[in-house]
Automatic annotation (TrEMBL):
It comes from Coemansia aciculifera. Keywords: ANK repeat, Repeat. This is Ankyrin. ANK repeats lie at residues 155-187, 189-217, 362-394, 392-424. PROSITE patterns: ANK_REP_REGION, ANK_REPEAT.
Amino acid sequence: MLDRVLPLDVLGMIFVLAQWPSLARVSRAFYAASQSAGVRARYCLAEFGRGRVLDGALGLPARRPRMTRPDVVLLLLRLGADPRADDQWVLRHACDRAGPWTPIVRTVLHMRHQGLRHQGPNRMPIDLDPVSGWRGIGNTDVTSPGPLLIDVHDGDDLALRIAAGRGHTAIVNILLDAGADAEALRGEPLALAAANAHADTVRALLGRGADAGAEHSRALRSAVLCGDANTDSVTALLDAGACVHAVDDSCLLAASYAGDGSALAPGSPPPDASRAALLAYATTDLPMHLPRPVPAAASFMRRYGRPTPRLPATHVRLVRLLIERGADPNACQGRPLAYACARGSVRTAAVLLAYDADPRARDDEPLRDAAERGHVDVMRLLLRAGASVHADDDAPLVNAARGGHIAAVHLLLAHGADASSPAGVRALCAAARGGWPTLVLVLIAAGADSTNPEFIACAQRSRPVRAALQM
């Protein structure tokens, strides 16, 4: 194959070299030497130059990504590479990765301008402090140390926001020691740490002066979205003064809306509505160790966007914590319970009812919403807590029939819903419009008026209903 594509003189050289017994050993030695940080750093420095080698778009990271290793970058900095390239790319990247990149953060934050008496065209006015024995390139005469090269506030403290969002507590402390603002962008670092369930970072920021109540307790509202996996962060924020009632109890509203978050088998509701029984029911078989939320991507802050954590299994314990810390279970005219019931979160509904949420708020809205979506377990819980099947002119029966939920209709009829009332006719018409023949027969057997002209008109438009009634 090679003899067809290579010239004869090259083939001859390959043949001669192949006769050398030490060729394999020497090749391995050259390959091992090429992997060293010193060789790679000097090669990249010669290829890109000191001013561009650490440019994220034009230098080493873009053109030689496999060479972008912490040891190589650290040596490049010691050889005079400019850390300010591409808006301080090296600092942002180190804050994003942490681990072996942490010493690089310390290094670039100590780099200073130097006053030089003799500065040639190839000499960089950069020095490392407190690294001893290095004074730039060539034989320079340093007169006095200058200001720091790196602006830790660049991009509205972007480096701090990246480290906080990624949960790199050690780097967060380093940046704060260097003068970074924990209140950048009205508390963005704290909100990012809380939104990604980094409790240690949250506590570190709070201990360095971050305001837990900034922007109407924005960090707390972000932390609640992560659910029970973020209970430590929520507790730290509440202890630091975050307001549990911020923005009309939006924390409890969000947690109630997220609810159980997974298809955990709820079992049968307790026979009594006492607080102890409801709380025991809500926490039965509830996982103790929940997965941490996962940020959208490792480089999410490069697009100046927000992380989008994956929701964990449940918000049940978080709902209980918020209520015990003062949140109102009847906030916004009973919206927390209505949200939980509409989404079928029976465990969350049990916690809210245990702390005296009103099941009859807004004309039994929780029962109406649960019936419309066929959440039978939630309906059973509400009925035992005192909800009425006759609320809003028997609207629960009509809502259940509209969705074709036969089990919900059976439950409502067993608790006294009147199929022979005008609401029964409306439910019958709704079932006929939806094409639910079995449900139509159930309602007629329960006493609904099948001779109503409106029902007959609806039934004639549905072939399954016509076949079931032999019309």
